[in-house]
What we know:
Structural class: mainly alpha
Radius of gyration: 20 Å
Number of domains: 1
Bound molecules: protoporphyrin IX containing FE
Number of helices: 9
Oligomer: single chain
Largest sheet: none
Amino acid sequence: MTDITARKRPVAKTQWWRPASVWALYALGLAPAVWYFYLGATNQLGVDPVKTFEHVLGIWALRFILATLCITPLRDLADINLMRYRRALGLLGFYYVCFHFLVYLVLDQRMDVSMVIEDVIKRPFITFGMMALVMLIPLAVTSNNWSIRTLKRGWILIHSFIYEITALATLHFAMSRKVIGPEIMLYIAIAVLLLGYRFARPAIMERRRARKKAARMQKGAK
Ligand code: HEM
């Protein structure tokens, strides 16, 4: 969720917008939760407001998790560096998963913990969702500069679990619906591409490095 390669540099006066843009992302990212909460509170969420609220929060959670995974391929393949937003995107994903779970616990299950435990045990899609939530906690807790400095390699290991979490979250989404329609297909395709990139990345980067080296040598020979 955080860029381990980011070094602390003094923020130049002309770059004031950088931290400001991260805070703007947090504000913008939380806007859908506030908006849907408002719609729910004013009775504008349709015939089943609890389900609708639960669903939109789940969808936004998945969107932010997938957006977090887009940052590295964007930098590698398109030279678009959005690293400074990665932590915010990951944390927004975590916040939405928490909101989604809270709606399920408080409004859907009416705080009946035994029902929740039964659901987690008996319904595989809930099991996968719960696993994803539990696995996200250490990532969220260590999404700060102090943890990066202190945990070093351990931090990289903890945050590498984002791929397993994404797979579980996508599976949870796919299994939560009776029919696999175009929307789920799209999310599955994006998740498969991003998870696939993780495995293909070493080879892709190696080829890019070799190509750059060859281009440099060719330039030098001219
Ligand atoms: C990373 C974690 C999670 C993500 C990304 C996630 C995401 C989603 C998504 C996208 C949906 C489908 C929304 C739709 O159909 O429009 C969904 C449905 C649901 N999720 Fe999650 N979820 C997560 C964790 C959890 C957890 C921990 C629970 C509860 C223990 C949970 C309970 C549910 C329930 C009850 C539904 C609705 C199923 C229905 O339609 O009856 N989810 N979730």
